[in-house]
């Protein structure tokens, strides 16, 4: 494979943003920032055999997800994703057509958000494919949906539903067997093609104050991060956790709690805000048809995260999260 | 190794930039851009066994170079490097202390340029360590030291000296044997700890127009990129190429041409500018004690890169560059 020829094939033919002064094709990219905004930037890596298995995901799906997980981080900061750069380490077990599919998968989700590929690096490696994506976005100045923003008396909320992605992974790995084809397809799709909650993040960042995380490592782990950063206790009502119709239909046959709390990769948003802002948030999300659910409250009388069942006293919820394909 | 504990160890204890609103510790970093500047961003990956060999470089040196090569890309755009993010894929053959050394090597060169680590990702992999660094910097609006800026009649220049890094690599690999300890040490140091030419890049970007590349893949390859992007021919006088005293002392005993043109990783800057701007550039560099040398000229009568020896007609200089440790 010729590196220059490959780069030419994956370089976007049109640029979406007039602010891009130099995209792919020089030593670095140059763009003009919105002078009224702050810049938001994150990087995430996916490794073959750790974050994905080649026989279970298509290259297109791998690319889609590699960019999606980064967009989700921007969403958790209340930002708008704009640009991305891709560094890819390629073993000779991957064909050029598969690599182009990875970039096409990224291009699909990028186009949903009007994002542009502006740079990258293509190198060889001996064994596992590694894809590292950097995403840059913008957010209004002084908007800070940080983990450390939770306060006593806050409402704890989550967008969408939780547990689907982890259920989908267990189905893929053969750890959970299911006959219903449409439920199976839905759950696997939720694992392979997560939807970053950019619109929800924008709404949440518009209220007076909110703490926020995206659910990458598992709901329990994300709640612990908020509790620790904010030095508060978080009380969760298990029966309030929003689950999909599909998960609801199979919940008698499996350990749904594990998927909901420790599965991870739902890429929904979890956070807290004051009771007054929560009323505003519910209304704004409702107007945009975004599902958002109250699942608990914040108390500074405790530290840590507690699970309350049937309104009984809470039990500590341990935080160990998602460990990908590791034993 | 505990990921959270490790991140805590490598997180800078003080932040250099008041513009960093959120560094490591949330879903993404947030910084305030200079509203008068454009943003410059690049990403480069170094893979164990391809870009470095563990038995020939210390972890500290690997970290130093991983960041240096990215700073060099910002320098080639005339920019000032400000922030960096590090994604690292770690096999279990690496100890935590070695990983901390990688970050300390990066921290050393970062401190030279007053740069801050603002984010990253730490994941596991099965075989080779992969380190991907993203660097963000700023440059004045409308400054464009692009490859495509060369024009007929331009002077071709290069900063510093060329060939040292490649000579150092050949010594490290045992392909070239040298007895003189101080020359040996100098050349290896030039390979392991390249100095990005940020100050020179700033000066070059201050003249009216200049094309510019950093020498990562080899001087011949970089010249070809400028010639192709600008659709011009470049004529190089081989005897004008600046070499170090050290290389000069051993040039009778080795193929110095190969090192100068195809070695790569000198991380000097090569470019072109008008004869008028060249006089200004020479003066400005001289004032700052930066070595800059005229090595040829641009002609639109030709396409490609030509090497002239003793003022005779030029021969085409082929472009194949540096292929790291590949056969």
Automatic annotation (TrEMBL), chains A, B:
Annotated Mg(2+) 5 binding sites: 217
PurM-like N-terminal domain boundaries: 25-139
SUPFAM superfamilies in UniProt: PurM C-terminal domain-like (SSF56042), PurM N-terminal domain-like (SSF55326)
Binding residues annotated for ATP, in chain numbering: 120-121, 147, 216
Catalytic reaction annotation: thiamine phosphate + ATP = thiamine diphosphate + ADP
Binding site for substrate: 51, 265, 322
CDD domains recorded: ThiL
Transmembrane segments: none
EC number, as in UniProt: 2.7.4.16
Domain of life, source organism: Bacteria
Major enzyme class: transferase
InterPro entries, alphabetized: PurM-like_C_dom (IPR010918), PurM-like_C_sf (IPR036676), PurM-like_N (IPR016188), PurM-like_N_sf (IPR036921), ThiL-like (IPR006283)
Protein residues bound to Mg(2+) 4: 27, 73
Pfam family, one: AIRS
Domain PurM-like C-terminal, chain residue ranges per copy: 152-301
Alphabetical keyword list: ATP-binding, Kinase, Magnesium, Metal-binding, Nucleotide-binding, Thiamine biosynthesis, Transferase
Note: Reaction mechanism of ThiL seems to utilize a direct, inline transfer of the gamma-phosphate of ATP to TMP rather than a phosphorylated enzyme intermediate.
Entry function: Catalyzes the ATP-dependent phosphorylation of thiamine-monophosphate (TMP) to form thiamine-pyrophosphate (TPP), the active form of vitamin B1.
Sequence similarity: Belongs to the thiamine-monophosphate kinase family.
This protein's name: Thiamine-monophosphate kinase
Organism field: Metabacillus niabensis
Lineage of producing organism: Bacteria, Bacillati, Bacillota, Bacilli, Bacillales
């Amino acid at each position: 494979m010729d590196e220059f020829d490959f780069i030419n094939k994956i370089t976007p033919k049109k640029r979406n943003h007039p602010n891009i002064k130099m995209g792919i094709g020089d030593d670095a990219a140059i763009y003009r920032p919105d002078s009224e905004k702050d810049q938001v930037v994150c990087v995430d890596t996916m490794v073959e055999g750790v974050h994905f298995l080649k026989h279970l995901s298509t290259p297109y799906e791998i690319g889609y997800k590699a960019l999606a997980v980064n967009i989700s981080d921007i969403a958790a900061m209340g930002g708008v994703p704009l640009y991305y750069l891709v560094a890819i380490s390629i073993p000779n077990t991957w064909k050029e057509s598969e690599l182009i599919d990875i970039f096409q998968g990224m291009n699909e989700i990028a186009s949903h958000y009007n994002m542009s590929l502006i740079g990258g690096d293509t190198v060889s490696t001996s064994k596992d494919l590694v894809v590292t994506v950097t995403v840059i976005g913008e957010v209004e100045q002084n908007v800070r949906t940080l983990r450390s923003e939770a306060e006593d008396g806050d409402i704890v909320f989550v967008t969408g539903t939780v547990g689907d992605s982890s259920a989908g992974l267990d189905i893929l790995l053969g750890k959970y067997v299911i006959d219903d084809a449409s439920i199976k397809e839905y759950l696997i799709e939720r694992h392979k093609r997560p939807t970053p909650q950019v619109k929800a993040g924008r709404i949440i960042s518009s209220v007076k104050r909110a703490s926020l995380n995206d659910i990458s490592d598992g709901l329990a782990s994300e709640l612990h991060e908020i509790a620790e950063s904010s030095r508060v206790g978080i009380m969760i009502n298990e029966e309030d956790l929003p689950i999909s119709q599909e998960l609801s239909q199979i919940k008698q046959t499996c350990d749904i709690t594990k998927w909901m709390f420790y599965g991870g990769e739902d890429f929904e948003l979890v956070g807290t805000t004051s009771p007054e802002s929560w009323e505003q948030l519910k209304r704004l999300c409702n107007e945009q048809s975004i599902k958002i659910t109250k699942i608990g409250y914040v108390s500074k009388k405790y530290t840590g995260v507690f699970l309350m069942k049937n309104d009984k006293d809470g039990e500590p919820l341990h935080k160990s999260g998602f460990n990908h394909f590791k034993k």
